[in-house]
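Question (not urgent): is this output format expected?
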Amino acid sequence: MHGYSADKQAYLTRLRRIEGQIRGLQRMVDDDAYCIDVLTQVSAATRALQAVALGLLEEHISHCVADAINTGGPEADAKVKEASAAIARLVRS
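Got this back:
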């Protein structure tokens, strides 16, 4: 079971809302909307995706990484490295 399983519906709802934002962006470009208006909506969609990513990361650390650390062994080290790499990817984006 994944760490986000308890909140799966909430994540799906948020992702569907973001999907709608992206479709709205496509319409804006198709309708030749003002550049700044499009950029404002891109920024909003980006922040929404970042919020989902941070939520998933928090779930991963509190569930998957914590479980691996409690179990110990090489899997614990692997989960910590995996979480660190995910954090690095989020920081770069």
